[in-house]
Amino acid sequence: MAPREVLRERARLGIEDEIDVALLVKSDILVAVARDAQEAEALEERAERPGIGRGVFDELEAVGLDRVVPRGFAHGIQLYDAAPMQKVATRVPLAEFEPALKIRLEKLWGTPPNLYRALANHPALVAAWTEFSKMLRHDTRTPRALRELVILRGGQLMRSEYEWAQHLPMARKAGVSEAQINALSAWRTSGEFDQREKAALALAEEVTQGHVSDAVHAEALRHFDHHDYVELAAVAAFYAMVGRMLDAMGVQLEPDFRDFSPELPA
Hints:
This protein is mainly alpha-helical. It contains 13 helices and two strands.
């Protein structure tokens, strides 16, 4: 619903308080955004121009929508606000692997994680998943550290504690610095990331959220050729699927990973 339609609806309903009408139709015109205060302030100022007053935003923030802007104003909107996935109840049992696949998995990953044991309820699927995952991890051209940043940012967006905890040690081993890990949720304004990394993270966010804008695509192609663009998009998309499957199956984090640090940003 366009802002002018909101104002028209307010008049039709005889509602004097624009906050009330905004709350009434917020699912249509407003979206929550996860941004730092300076960026969110600028977006809110832009949003005031069509006729939605700042009081609307203050009210929505008061009831728990941290930052809100009219749909279409936000770049890189936050679509996920689920509880951390570690707290989801187990939904499928941890299955055993077929003998040949067990040998393959142990060769690739050592002790297979709970994610794979949950997927093992579907033997053909986990076998195919294993090979695709192996290709994205080992048979790629982009730097492993860059891909781990993409994965960690996806884990943040989906609030997947499992994905975050599993990939923190992989990211560190690949060369991602503690400063980058700590600054990842604010990567747009952080000096810890170069322009190439920021282009990859912008792509990762929009792939995870379901739509890549022309601007993000164009910026990515300033730093990556088509091969690497497809590769990074595939990594982001695959690990978005990982997060959704973790949630759907209720996969629990292994005890050895539960003391991870830093915690997933709220």
